[in-house]
């Protein structure tokens, strides 16, 4: 079905295009991205790497019997991992049409994310967006913005 646009219609169309590109209504895309991010963060916890792919420092001491016998950092009780990747009482997640928030209220999370000031606890970044997520988000939001412009 052909569409017609007239010169006198262009200012309104261009203004609407600017509105869409500045404030896309892409909540469904953002929800998909937050789910992909949680999946990638879980993989990071399980493999001991930060979102950017840097390997976490190994544990200084092996865990006692009954605790994380694989000696993987940050998953002794899985509380921190679950608080970031699933619906957990300490889980922080927010999705709007223009942004997403993902985090945790676990009190010791910041020390592991940044490392302790005295150096006794090394930095093991577990929160962030890896290249795969960023690339996917860029493509999906761009595709969604194009669809929204096509519907003007």
List key phrases describing it.
152 residues; mainly alpha; two-stranded antiparallel ribbon; 5 helices; 44% helix
Count of helical stretches:
5
Class from secondary-structure proportions: mainly alpha
Distance between the termini: 15 Å
**Could you tell me the strand content as a percent range?**
5-15%
Low-confidence runs of at least 5 consecutive residues? none
Number of domains: 1
Q: Describe the sheet with the most strands.
A: 2 strands, antiparallel
Strand order of the largest sheet: 1-2
The coarse silhouette is: elongated
Question: Overall mean pLDDT score?
Answer: 91
The helical percent reads 40-55%
Radius of gyration: 21 Å
Q: What is the count of β-strands?
A: 2
Following the backbone from N to C, one meets helices and strands in this order, namely HHHEEHH
3D architecture notes:
This protein is mostly helical and 152 residues long. It has one domain (8-150). Helices cover 44% and strands 7% of the residues. It is built from 5 helices and 2 strands; from the N terminus they run H-H-H-E-E-H-H. A hairpin with a 4-residue loop joins strand 1 and strand 2. The longest helix has 21 residues, at 27-47. The mean pLDDT is 91.
């Amino acid at each position: 079905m052909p569409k017609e646009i007239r010169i006198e219609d262009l200012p309104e169309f261009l203004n609407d295009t600017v509105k869409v590109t500045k404030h896309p209504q892409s909540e469904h895309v953002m929800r998909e991205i937050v789910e992909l991010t949680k999946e990638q963060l879980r993989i990071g916890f399980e493999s001991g790497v930060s979102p950017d792919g840097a390997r976490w420092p190994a544990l200084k001491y092996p865990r006692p019997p009954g605790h994380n016998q694989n000696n993987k950092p940050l998953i002794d009780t899985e509380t921190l991992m679950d608080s970031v990747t699933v619906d957990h009482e300490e889980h922080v997640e927010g999705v709007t049409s223009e942004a997403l928030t993902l985090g945790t209220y676990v009190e010791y999370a910041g020390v592991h994310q940044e490392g302790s000031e005295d150096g006794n606890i090394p930095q093991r970044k577990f929160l962030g967006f890896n290249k795969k997520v960023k690339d996917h988000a860029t493509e999906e939001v761009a595709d969604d913005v194009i669809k929204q412009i096509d519907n003007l």
